[in-house]
Amino acid sequence: MAFFSKLRERLTRSSSKIGEGLDGIVAEAPAAAPAAVEAPAATGLVGRLFGRAPSAVEEPRRALDDEMLEELEDMLVQADLGVDTALRVTANIAEGRMGRRVSATELKELLAAEIARIMAPVARPLPLYPRKPQVVLVVGVNGAGKTTTIGKLASQFRAAGKSVVIAAGDTFRAAAVEQLQVWGQRAGVPVMVAPQGSDPASLAYDAMVRAEADGADLLMIDTAGRLQNRQDLMEELAKIVRVIRKKDPEAPHNTLLVLDATTGQNALNQVETFRKLADVSGLVMTKLDGTARGGVLVALADRFGLPIHAIGVGEQIDDLDAFDAGDFARALVGLEDARA
Ligand SMILES: Nc1nc2c(ncn2[C@@H]2O[C@H](COP(=O)(O)OP(=O)(O)OP(=O)(O)O)[C@@H](O)[C@H]2O)c(=O)[nH]1
Ligand SMILES: [Mg+2]
User: H or E stretch including 283?
Assistant: First the structure.
């Protein structure tokens, strides 16, 4: 699968972190019980269990004990899964397997399965409704990737035959408007703008009028990330919601919170904060390329259960992909694609 290799290649740093961590844990068998080569009879069985032909050179193995589980737990915490999630994942891996001699590959398979199980319920694309225009409000802290994500999403919806209007609701910075206009051109989508410093809510209202008049399928509203304080941001978002509800009491139909994967555990605080400010309906995680912190997605899924609609894996227009739980889990632990 082409996307998997891209994700794998771009998640290299996370995967090498967890993958190497697991390799290290198995290799670091305590001196009293050195990692040994499995007896040939058992090897055949384990090989069959994991669907592989027995090979001449066997991987080192280590017996699962409390010490090893503790190392596993620590490693997962380091990899941003968070303490609660790391504890639970480790306990699930341990269940019924204490004393069993496992290889790093087996451990990776077990971990990938646990992570995929946590992630599967949240891997859901942005739901599309028959409602026209479907209003998508995009929120997130300064620099998270809101504007870029809107550009990428607009391009994908256009490619899928949907008509899209973008509202440049970040009226604080002139550069923000220009940036969105560039994305609008790339995606072939009209961008509604307002003079710098003007009221984003009135722009949002105008954009609703325009999107309705155009019969647009989707209206995506960008918002400012940098405001003086939380109160400002809350008031601004509330006002935007209030005015668009004058046109459609059910809008916004989606409130996307854009999170930057490189912020690691801080993403959890951002979700807490934005859930108080807005009715967050789903997440987009950006910058999963080139970060060692992809593990935070597992913590987010486990803690909040909010749908992850898409992930950003680069700065280009096509660097946004649907979130696939299995692909992500395997890439994160440094395994090859099962279907390759
Ligand atoms: N590598 C990488 N960079 C990204 C990704 N998404 C966004 N960026 C970059 O992150 C930076 C900030 O992105 P913006 O889209 O401007 O973020 P924003 O949330 O709109 O920021 P403000 O408007 O300042 O609040 C830009 O340089 C983007 O190119 C991604 O998935 N991967
Ligand atoms: Mg922006």
Answer: strand 282-286
For the whole model, what pTM was predicted?
Answer: 0.88
pLDDT at 54: 52
Instruction: Give the domain-ending residue among 93, 122, 151.
Output: 122
CB-side exposure of 183: number of CA atoms within 13 Å?
32
pLDDT at residue 250 in the model: 95
Q: Which of the listed residues 156, 191, 263, 315 should we mutate to test ligand 1's pocket, taking the one with most ligand atoms within 8 A of CB? A: 315
Asked if 225 and 290 sit in the same domain, the reply is yes
Same domain for 69 and 168: no
> Is residue 143 in contact with ligand 1, taking CB distance under 6 Å?
yes
Could you tell me if 268 and 152 are in contact, meaning their C-beta atoms sit under 8 angstroms apart? Answer: no
Cα 223 to middle of ligand 2, angstroms: 7
Q: Which long-range contacts (CB under 8 A, 24 or more apart) does 112-115 make?
A: 112/326, 112/329, 112/330, 112/332, 112/333, 112/335, 113/329, 114/89, 115/89, 115/298, 115/325, 115/328, 115/329, 115/332, 115/333
> By alpha-carbon position, which residue is closest to atom 29 of ligand 1?
315
Q: Dump pLDDT digits (tens) for 131-161.
A: 899 999 999 999 999 999 999 999 999 999 9
pLDDT one-digit tens code per residue, 13-49: 555 788 889 989 998 776 655 555 544 444 555 555 5
